[in-house]
Specification:
Length: 413
Amino acid sequence: MAWYNFFSGSNSSGNSRKEGYQDSAPSSYNEESAARVTFDTAMTQSAFWASARLLSETVSSMPIRCVKKMPDGSRKIDTEYMLYRTINFQPNRYQTRTEFFETLMLNLVTDGNAYIEIKRTPRGIVSFMPLMSSQMEVELQSDGSIKYKYTGLNFMTRIISESNMWHIRLFGNGVVGMSPLAYARQALGVGLAENARTGKIAKNGGNMGTVLKTDKVLKPEQRTMFKNGIAKDIVGGDTVPVLEAGVDAMRIGLSPADMQLLESRRFSVEDIARFMGVPSVLINDTAGSTVWGSGIGELVTGFYKLNLKPYLERIESSMTRHLIPREDWGTYEIEFDFDSLLRADRQTRMVANSTAINSGQLTPNEARNMEGLPDKEGGDDIYLNGSLNAGGKQTEPVIKEATEESGAEDEEI
């Protein structure tokens, strides 16, 4: 069966779907890469490593929770839902929740696809085993179904049904996602070539080589004598050569700026970060050091909202689609606690909690729980500041005015 790429090339038109194996890489490149690019070589690039690590570790560090939608429209945290307990405590025999999501994200942000095999029993889903994207082949069948062919230990291949595969994909043709590693090949190749060049210069102490200079035209046998004798001694450094007949030895060196290749290496970092969707300053690009300080808060918030949130939404909707039984759709959701990333400093939280309590949006105990504090007696009542209660009318019996007359005081959180 043919191997089709759906984004360019003669085998396809735009991103139309055709039967066959799916390819997450481009069908062709304008020119050869400056260096050979594989997953292993790409991960030797500090910018690529840091970007993949930042995305993977940030998502894996976020708590997850199971939310049950109640008939009255409220949302309740449910810690007994079996799917939640499996993901949160032991997704498989080898990994913790954090390690599981790290592996999932590493495959997703590099290959554009994350494949997780689902293990089921009559009781339900009991484990999730992440499979390496580089060892997976995806085939679109003539009836529209998808077949997953995985090459595992000892090069043994096996077919995994669509019902037992949790497949998370980046944007693409809907069957497979586009691979950031493959599409960034040129940028990564430039960075690898620059690293190799810098390493070679550093190994030679900044000297590109030695030349012999003379004001005479040498005969062929004299050139051979210089190469095999004096030139060899100068390069090897084992002997002290004697230069005759106006011959001078000159070393070709580079300035410190040339040795560091500052401009080209800085552009390489920015280019790789751009492909990975990470602000370069977050992977220690000091060229933008002026953004640190008061501006870093806005930068981080923007990164969370514009770069991380799409990943989280993608994973959450995929869990609903592949893991939650159809009869539980609309009732249960497994979601990331995104607020944990945007958690403000303590003083800001205290002011926000006080405002929420006085406006009736939170009870004291709800605010205490958000701060990890135990409940207090009487803390489940809603307190509404008298100035916000129009006309001093109490519309709900559970609402208490926080006034001196009622004697109620806002409890410190």
